[in-house]
């Protein structure tokens, strides 16, 4: 067992405004399609600060109440391990402004479910919409909820 395997920390945030959800249509060549905005936790940065910064960079909005609702891990094509911290935010200030990451759109939940999602992003969505359990762990390929 390799106990020194490097892990990249990332975050992703569902921003809600009444019945609308902000989605990012990523133009990333490796993982294109509809997801929520988010990105990497930088060295020496707190989890809270990283999600606020990434959302600001990708949407122009400053989120006020990011709430951690789940964590997943996955391995990319190079067998590099990632952890993704899932957040929900319902309060924000600022004006929507897209970045080079992709186009931003407000969708209803139904529109989101039928949109061209990024590969396997549909596996993550239950974590954001489950009202009964506040914290989830999505584990690797099995995508089981604990
Ligand atoms: N690349 C990739 N990212 C994924 C997958 N699944 C998944 O949840 N993610 C998450 C991890 C990150 O939160 C986000 C991708 O962020 P990114 O790699 O585009 O990072 P970024 O450019 O937005 O961040 P940064 O470089 O600006 O810091 O999506 C996947 O299969 N591939």
Automatic annotation (TrEMBL):
Keywords, sorted A to Z: Hydrolase
Domain Nudix hydrolase: 6-129
GO molecular function: 8-oxo-7,8-dihydrodeoxyguanosine triphosphate pyrophosphatase activity
This enzyme's EC code(s): 3.6.1.55
InterPro entries tied to this protein: NUDIX_hydrolase-like_dom_sf (IPR015797), NUDIX_hydrolase_dom (IPR000086)
Record-linked PROSITE patterns: NUDIX
The protein's enzyme class: hydrolase
The family this protein is said to belong to: Belongs to the Nudix hydrolase family.
Name by which UniProt lists this protein: 8-oxo-dGTP diphosphatase
The species this protein was found in: Lactobacillus colini
Lineage of producing organism: Bacteria, Bacillati, Bacillota, Bacilli, Lactobacillales
């Amino acid at each position: 067992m390799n106990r020194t395997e490097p892990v990249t920390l990332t975050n992703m945030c569902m921003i809600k405004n009444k019945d609308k959800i902000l989605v990012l249509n990523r133009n990333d060549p490796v993982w294109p399609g509809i997801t929520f905005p988010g990105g990497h936790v930088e060295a020496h940065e707190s989890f809270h600060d990283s999600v606020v910064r990434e959302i600001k960079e990708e949407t122009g909005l400053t989120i006020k109440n990011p709430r951690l609702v789940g964590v997943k891990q996955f391995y990319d094509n190079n067998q590099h391990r990632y952890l993704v911290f899932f957040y929900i935010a319902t309060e924000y200030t600022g004006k929507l402004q897209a970045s080079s990451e992709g186009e931003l759109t407000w969708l209803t939940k139904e529109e989101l479910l039928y949109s061209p999602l990024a590969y396997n992003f549909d596996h993550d969505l239950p974590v954001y919409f489950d009202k009964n359990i506040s914290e989830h762990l999505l584990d690797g390929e099995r995508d089981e909820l604990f």
